[in-house]
Amino acid sequence: MNVKVQVNKLGLYYGDVLALKKISIEIIENSVLALIGPSGCGKSTFLKTLNRMNDLIDSVKIEGEVLLDGENIYHPNIDTVMLRKRIGMVFQRPNPFPMSVYDNIAYGPRIHGQAKKAVLDEIVEKSLTGSALWDEVKDRLHSSAMGLSGGQQQRLCIARLLAVEPEVLLMDEPCSALDPISTMKIEELVTKLKASYTIVMVTHNMQQAARVSDYTGFFLSGDLVEQDKTDTIFTRPQDKRTEDYITGRFG
Ligand SMILES: Nc1ncnc2c1ncn2[C@@H]1O[C@H](COP(=O)(O)OP(=O)(O)OP(=O)(O)O)[C@@H](O)[C@H]1O
């Protein structure tokens, strides 16, 4: 088991407010880590620290380190554009660009300098196949992505990430805006993708965490209270607060 991302005593302030308290966790390569916890406990904030999305907020101050393959992503020499290519993110609501399916996928490779049509064609097909969307859109590649269903749009957003060959996928409640069938497709996809990628997923859905993840971390008020194999968290949690939360007695 290889550690892909190692987080050491990561603290984050929004202004004077401490939102993450010395979080330490190892994220194992080719696994799915689910992050659970009540609203406002810091899950999304933590997820965004993994590819420095919080840097975009002025008031944010970060302490500690995040090592990607042993290298601190907060080192001043790190190129954040390259970092976000290696660690991509999918959001709660699918956010396709208002352009064709094809151009959505080709966008990232073009930005990174790929201009050859034959290569882009190949990337588009491979990425859409990888996100289990190819069969549904192969005849409408040049139609607007805005015409796809919500579930298809979310898989398009995943394909858009795959097109730039990331290593880690961050997913912030990727199914929260989707119906049960689209949710099932995304869950199947996540299970398939972990063979090639390392995945960190925030979810409010306990069953989803139990179904798709290998490891689970429970957050509460900016603390990572407990982290372990998902089976262990759901059957033998060590901390009473974790048990209360997963059994619905929280609060
Ligand atoms: N840009 C921001 N500026 C100031 N405070 C923020 C900002 N973003 C989040 N916070 C605060 O940080 C804390 C953690 O928020 P965060 O969104 O990470 O929680 P969460 O666990 O992902 O919640 P949810 O499950 O509701 O999405 C909250 O108290 C929130 O109000």
Automatic annotation (TrEMBL):
What residue ranges carry the coiled-coil annotation?
Answer: none
**Record-linked Pfam families:** ABC_tran
Keyword vocabulary terms for this entry: ATP-binding, Cell membrane, Membrane, Nucleotide-binding, Phosphate transport, Translocase, Transport
| Lineage: superkingdom | Bacteria
Q: What membrane topology was assigned to this protein in its record?
A: Peripheral membrane protein
- ABC transporter domain boundaries: 5-246
Q: Where in the cell is it found?
A: Cell inner membrane
InterPro entries, per database record: AAA+_ATPase (IPR003593), ABC_transporter-like_ATP-bd (IPR003439), ABC_transporter-like_CS (IPR017871), P-loop_NTPase (IPR027417), PstB-like (IPR005670)
Residue ranges annotated as transmembrane are none
Q: Which CDD domains match?
A: ABC_PstB_phosphate_transporter
GO CC entries: plasma membrane
| PANTHER family recorded | ABC TRANSPORTER I FAMILY MEMBER 17
What the protein does? Part of the ABC transporter complex PstSACB involved in phosphate import. Responsible for energy coupling to the transport system.
What protein does this entry describe? Phosphate import ATP-binding protein PstB 3
| Organism of origin | Sporomusa termitida
